[in-house]
Amino acid sequence: MTTMISEVYDAFRKAGVPEEAARKAAEALSAENLATKTDIQRIDKEMLVLMWMIGFNLAFTMVILWKVFSVCTKSGS
């Protein structure tokens, strides 16, 4: 059985929403379906690692390209 937020359910019922629709909406808004602060912090940490990886990859690629083109221009002269 899914959990639901009773306050949300009660608010929907007071607003005139049919019982079944209010129950489904309250279940959809339950804590199991929402991101918590720890979820968001974990994602932020993962994004930081990914940004560093992309930056390192870009810098390393630029160094390799610099070396390739500098060798090509020296041997072409």
Overview features:
2 domains; mainly alpha
Helical segment count = 3
User: What is the total domain count?
Assistant: 2
Through-space gap between termini: 76 Å
User: How many extended strands?
Assistant: 0
Shape: rod-shaped
Q: What is the percent of helical residues?
A: over 70%
> What class do helices, strands and sheet pairing give?
mainly alpha
User: How much strand?
Assistant: under 5%
Give start-end ranges of low-pLDDT stretches. none
Largest sheet: none
Order of helices and strands: HHH
Mean pLDDT: 87
Spatial extent as radius of gyration: 27 Å
Architecture blueprint of SSEs:
Blueprint: H1 6-14, H2 19-28, H3 37-76
Helix pairs in contact: 1-2
Overview of the molecule:
The protein is built from three helices and no strands. The protein has 77 residues and is mostly helical. It folds into two domains: 1-34, no CATH class; 36-77. α1 (6-14) runs antiparallel to α2. The longest helix is centred in the C-terminal third of the chain and has 40 residues, at 37-76. The radius of gyration is 27 Å and the shape is rod-shaped. The model has no long low-confidence stretch (mean pLDDT 87).
